[in-house]
């Protein structure tokens, strides 16, 4: 295969058997198929293009960074400095703040896609990917469905038109993210609750909860920041903390906690860095056990490495808990 061209060379053909609501087709890609048009998918496409390897991105939603665009609250900002979140080959604009807003981050990603000529195939859901050893290529199957308005009898109705495709390529890059799927816990009796039950992916702001008591289930970064947002709109939030949790200040010694941690890890073992971070946290935000928050026995960086559990970077919620605005 020729990889001198950075635009994917594709050929398409209809299969002999048709889907009940649409045709199946095969597409040969002279390069890589990337699943997901989030930050990682865009970065992979840009880096492959720089190396002269073409690629196409398959995205099940209707836009790039769909999680950021459709499933995040309005006040969200990057919790890490922009220098640690920028994608390869293109830094954030210099006029952006240290912690860019949601809108700024989305704008940055859209500019990134335009700069590198990345045009994802939207509304295509990957249903399967398997390596065909007989030909030494990957086969990636997708489906895309549209609701078409059509005449049904004397009135108008909807018919669902679905099309299946199979992409044949040399490489597959999975960039679907770690928080793409909504996790809703089972709570006994929730169907009898007369109030609104909202998952954070549908929460935009605390405006609709002004003056109301709100129970936030979950004490991760999202739960903590939602509590802060509810307070800013005059709601009265309480938070349920099921498990132990590490809470660290967003900044220490004039530097971001993340940046300080990465610098210390160059010189010290992870256990010593964890002890140093916990000592500084105690000096800055105090003993959180008095607030009903128990720290895990394992340090925050070790815990992240072994379990993937991210420590909470406090952006103002701990003072609200201490003052009683968050119960």
Q: What Rg do the Cα atoms give?
A: 24 Å
Q: Fill in the CATH topology of the largest domain.
A: FAD/NAD(P)-binding domain
Low-confidence region ranges: 1-6, 13-21
Which term fits the overall shape? globular
Give the class from helix and strand content and strand pairing: alpha/beta
Q: State the distance separating the first and last CA atoms.
A: 62 Å
Question: Which CATH C-level class of the largest domain is it?
Answer: Alpha Beta
CATH superfamily of the largest domain: FAD/NAD(P)-binding domain
Main sheet specs: 5 strands, mixed
Number of strands: 14
Strand order of the largest sheet: 1-2-7-6-5
Number of helices: 8
Strand content: 25-35%
Summarize the structure.
This protein is of the alpha/beta class and 327 residues long. It has helices at residues 39-50, 66-70, 102-115, 221-232, 257-264, 270-285, 300-307, 317-323; strands at residues 10-14, 24-29, 32-35, 55-58, 125-132, 137-152, 155-169, 171-174, 213-217, 236-240, 247-249, 251-252, 255-256, 312-314. It has eight helices and 14 strands.
Describe this protein's structure.
The chain has 327 residues and is of the alpha/beta class. The protein has 2 domains: 25-174, FAD/NAD(P)-binding domain, CATH 3.50.50; 196-323, no CATH class. Helix content is 25%, strand content 25%. It is built from 8 helices and 14 strands. It has helices spanning 39-50, 66-70, 102-115, 221-232, 257-264, 270-285, 300-307, 317-323, and strands at residues 10-14, 24-29, 32-35, 55-58, 125-132, 137-152, 155-169, 171-174, 213-217, 236-240, 247-249, 251-252, 255-256, 312-314. It has a 5-stranded mixed sheet, with no helix packed on it. Strands 4-3-8 form a 3-stranded parallel sheet, with helices on one face. Strands 9-10 form a two-stranded parallel ribbon. A hairpin with a 2-residue loop joins β12 (251-252) and β13 (255-256). The longest helix has 16 residues, at 270-285. The chain is globular and about 60 Å long. The termini are far apart. This is Flavin-containing monooxygenase. Residues 1-22 are annotated as: Disordered. It catalyses: indole-3-pyruvate + NADPH + O2 + H(+) = (indol-3-yl)acetate + CO2 + NADP(+) + H2O. Its EC number is 1.-.-.-.
């Amino acid at each position: 295969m020729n990889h001198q061209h950075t635009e994917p060379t594709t050929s398409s053909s209809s299969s002999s058997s048709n889907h009940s609501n649409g045709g199946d087709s095969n597409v040969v890609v002279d390069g890589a198929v990337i699943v997901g048009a989030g930050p990682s998918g865009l970065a992979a496409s840009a880096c492959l293009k720089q190396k002269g390897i073409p690629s196409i991105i398959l995205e099940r939603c209707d836009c790039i960074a769909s999680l950021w665009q459709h499933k995040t609250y309005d006040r969200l900002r990057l919790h890490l400095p922009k220098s640690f979140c920028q994608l390869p080959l293109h830094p954030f604009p210099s006029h952006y703040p240290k912690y860019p807003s949601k809108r700024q981050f989305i704008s940055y990603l859209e500019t990134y896609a335009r700069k590198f000529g990345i045009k994802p195939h939207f509304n295509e859901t990957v249903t399967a990917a398997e390596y065909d050893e007989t030909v030494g290529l990957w086969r990636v199957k997708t489906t895309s469905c549209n609701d078409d308005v059509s005449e049904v009898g004397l009135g108008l109705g909807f018919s669902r038109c679905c099309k299946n495709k199979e992409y044949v390529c040399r490489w597959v890059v999975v960039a679907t993210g770690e928080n793409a799927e909504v996790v809703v816990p089972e709570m006994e009796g929730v169907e009898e609750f007369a109030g609104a039950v909202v998952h954070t992916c549908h929460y935009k702001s605390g405006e609709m909860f002004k003056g109301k008591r709100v129970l936030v289930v979950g004490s991760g970064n999202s739960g903590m920041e939602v509590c802060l947002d509810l307070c800013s709109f005059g709601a009265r939030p309480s938070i349920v903390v099921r498990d132990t949790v590490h809470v660290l200040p967003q900044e220490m010694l004039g530097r971001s906690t993340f940046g300080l941690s990465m610098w210390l890890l160059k010189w010290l073992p992870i256990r010593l860095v964890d002890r140093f971070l916990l000592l500084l946290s105690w000096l800055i935000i105090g003993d959180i056990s008095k607030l009903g928050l128990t720290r895990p026995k394992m340090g925050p960086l070790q815990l992240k490495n072994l379990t993937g559990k991210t420590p909470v970077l406090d952006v103002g919620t701990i003072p609200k808990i201490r003052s009683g605005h968050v119960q």
